[in-house]
Design goal:
The longest helix has 14 residues. The chain starts with 16 loop residues before the first helix and ends with a helix. A hairpin with an 8-residue loop joins β3 and β4. The protein has a single domain, classed as Aspartate Aminotransferase, domain 1 (Alpha-Beta Complex), CATH 3.90.1150. The chain is an alpha+beta fold and 138 residues long. This is YdhG-like domain-containing protein. It comes from Nibricoccus aquaticus. InterPro entries: YdhG-like.
């Protein structure tokens, strides 16, 4: 499915254009794990009131001051989320200390990783912990 690649998010005035945009995107999404993606959206958005949603890179994405996580929709058999510090790799990042006792993280670079959630319900607490730690770096 083709959708516009946009970056609208909820504004500080309490608007919900980002959530509406993602809702519209999700309504047209044909994905075998759509229900799990909806749950991941709910989990990530619930971690902090500072987290907003938008469609970025043709996928549901999350931001505080900038985008930090994007659901990897190409994976059709598991839920994966790319955590990053924006669109471009950052050379100023020395290391990121993210506790990962459930071994969900695969580091792709110093400033980005791929989190494979597997069972969303069973790994909810681990995902919440990763998001909380990650947004401290954004």
């Amino acid at each position: 499915m083709k959708t516009k690649n946009t970056t609208k998010v909820r504004g500080d005035g309490g608007g919900d254009s980002g959530t509406q945009e993602v809702d519209t995107f999700m309504a047209g999404l044909d994905h075998p794990l759509k229900n799990e993606i909806v749950e991941v959206r709910r989990i990530i958005s619930g971690v902090s009131p500072a987290i907003q949603e938008g469609v970025k890179w043709n996928a549901p994405s999350f931001r505080t001051t900038e985008f930090f996580a994007t659901i990897h929709l190409r994976a059709r058999d598991k839920i994966q989320i790319v955590f990053h510090l924006g669109a471009k790799a950052r050379d100023d990042v020395q290391s990121m200390a993210i506790s990962d006792p459930c071994s969900l993280i695969k580091w792709l670079a110093k400033d980005r990783c791929l989190v494979t959630v597997g069972d969303v319900v069973a790994n909810k607490a681990a995902l919440v912990a990763i998001v909380r730690q990650w947004i401290a770096y954004v």
